[in-house]
Amino acid sequence: MKNRTKAYTRHQRERIIQKKLSILHTVFQLEDEYLPIRGTLSKGKVHCSCKLCRFEQYYAIPKAKHKAKLKAMLKEIDD
User: Fold this and answer.
1) Is residue 40 within 8 Å of 60, Cβ to Cβ?
2) What is the pLDDT along the chain (79 residues), one digit of tens a residue?
3) Domain boundaries, the chain
4) 44, 65 contact by CB (below 8 A)
């Protein structure tokens, strides 16, 4: 593994915290006084298992790459 600088580590940590903060603001619509401490957002997963975070999986909507593979296979069968 490459040795990373402290600046790189700080950048990645801040990037993840910003991503999770935006999820908390937009999806869960939490106001600033109800947000957790920023440092705790650098750990753990980005999503949860609710319907909002797992919309495609909950309603069995196939992903774009799976649709493209299926379309290519069907075209290959027709040829």
Assistant:
1) no
2) 688 999 999 999 999 899 888 888 887 788 888 888 888 888 877 666 677 667 778 888 888 888 899 999 999 998 8
3) 1-48, 50-78
4) no
Q: Taking the CA atoms of the chain, what radius of gyration do you get in angstroms?
A: 19
- Considering the entire predicted model, what is its pTM? 0.56
Residue 9 is encoded by which pair of tokens?
Answer: 């580590």
Other CB atoms within 10 A of residue 33 CB: 5
- Token duo for residue 56: 């495609």
DSSP class of 62: P
Give φ, ψ of 50 to 5 degrees: -80, 170
Token look-up 């069968």 returns 77
Phi, psi of 11 (to 5 degrees): -60, -45
Q: What CA–CA distance (Å, rounded) separates 21 from 35?
A: 8
